[in-house]
């Protein structure tokens, strides 16, 4: 599923475009590097020829939203877990010359808590109605 792929990417030291924020409770994405590294037509540093079924970064944002991730303001530079790697190291602002930085949060996507991934549900209309009614939504 999408959240499991994301979990593997953010924890893979070879992937430089996706990382944890300073608290380990959010996800930081360097858009330009992500597009080159994971969406470009060639194998990225993750060693996968095609991790996602799309080449469009907007589709990745849509998937994040469908799985309950919320966009947050970009934190000050240096707030990521571990050092910032790559050409975008000079700035962590949305107007970075190398491309915008995105900060996403989901209550069930945590640095040392892979057990929470099963709680991330795709927010379809039917699932949203079940969750609003307090019912359980099975994980795919």
Q: How would you explain this protein's 3D organization?
A:
With 140 residues, this protein is α+β, with helices and mostly antiparallel strands. The chain has one domain: Winged helix-like DNA-binding domain superfamily/Winged helix DNA-binding domain (Arc Repressor Mutant, subunit A), CATH 1.10.10.10. The protein is 26% helix and 11% strand. It is built from 4 helices and 4 strands, in the order αββααββα. It has helices at residues 2-10, 31-39, 57-66, 125-132, and strands spanning 18-20, 26-30, 70-72, 101-105. It has a 4-stranded antiparallel beta sheet. A hairpin with a 5-residue loop joins strand 1 (18-20) and strand 2. The protein is globular. The protein starts with a helix and ends in an 8-residue tail after the last helix. The relative contact order is 0.20. The model is unreliable at 43-48 and 80-95 (pLDDT under 50).
Q: Which tags fit this structure?
A:
single chain, 140 residues, alpha+beta, Arc Repressor Mutant, subunit A, 4-stranded antiparallel sheet, 4 helices, 4 strands
End-to-end distance = 8 Å
Helix and strand succession?
HEEHHEEH
Main β-sheet, spatial strand arrangement = 1-2-4-3
Unreliable runs, pLDDT <50, ≥5 residues?
43-48, 80-95
Could you report the average pLDDT, rounded to the nearest whole number?
A: 78
CATH architecture: Orthogonal Bundle
At CATH level 3, the topology is Arc Repressor Mutant, subunit A
How many strand segments?
4
CATH superfamily: Winged helix-like DNA-binding domain superfamily/Winged helix DNA-binding domain
- CATH class, please? Mainly Alpha
What amount of the residues lies in strands? 5-15%
**Which structural class do you get from the secondary structure elements?**
alpha+beta
Shape: globular
Estimate the helix proportion, in percent: 25-40%
Total domain units = 1
For the largest beta-sheet, the strand count, sense and barrel status come to: 4 strands, antiparallel
How many H/I helical runs? 4
**Rg result:** 15 Å
Domain HSF-type DNA-binding: 1-123
GO cellular component, one term: nucleus
GO molecular function: DNA-binding transcription factor activity; sequence-specific DNA binding
Region (Disordered): 77-108
């Amino acid at each position: 599923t999408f959240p499991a792929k994301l979990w593997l990417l953010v924890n893979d030291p070879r992937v430089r475009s996706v990382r944890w924020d300073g608290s380990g409770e959010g996800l930081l994405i360097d858009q330009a590097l992500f597009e080159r590294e994971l969406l470009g037509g060639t194998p990225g540093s993750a060693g996968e020829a095609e991790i996602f079924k799309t080449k469009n970064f907007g589709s990745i944002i849509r998937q994040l939203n469908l799985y309950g991730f919320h966009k947050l303001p970009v934190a000050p530079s240096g707030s990521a877990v571990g050092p910032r790697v790559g050409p975008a190291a000079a700035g962590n602002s949305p107007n970075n010359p190398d491309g915008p930085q995105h900060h996403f949060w989901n209550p069930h996507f945590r640095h040392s808590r892979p057990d929470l991934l099963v709680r991330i549900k795709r927010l379809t209309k039917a699932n949203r109605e079940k969750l609003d009614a307090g019912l359980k939504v099975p994980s795919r």
